[in-house]
Amino acid sequence: MTNKPICITLILLFTVFSFAAKAQRGKQTSLSVGSEIIAPLNMDYQGNNTDVHINAGFGVNLKLEKPITETLHFTVAAGFIFTESTPEYLFSSNSSNVFYDNNFHNLYAYLPVTAGLKYYWAKHFYVNAEAGSAFSINSRARTSFIYAGGAGVVVPIGPHHGLDFGLQFERGYKNTDYDHAISQLGLSVAYKYRF
Question: What is d(CA 65, CA 117) in angstroms, rounded to the nearest whole number?
Answer without folding.
Answer: 9
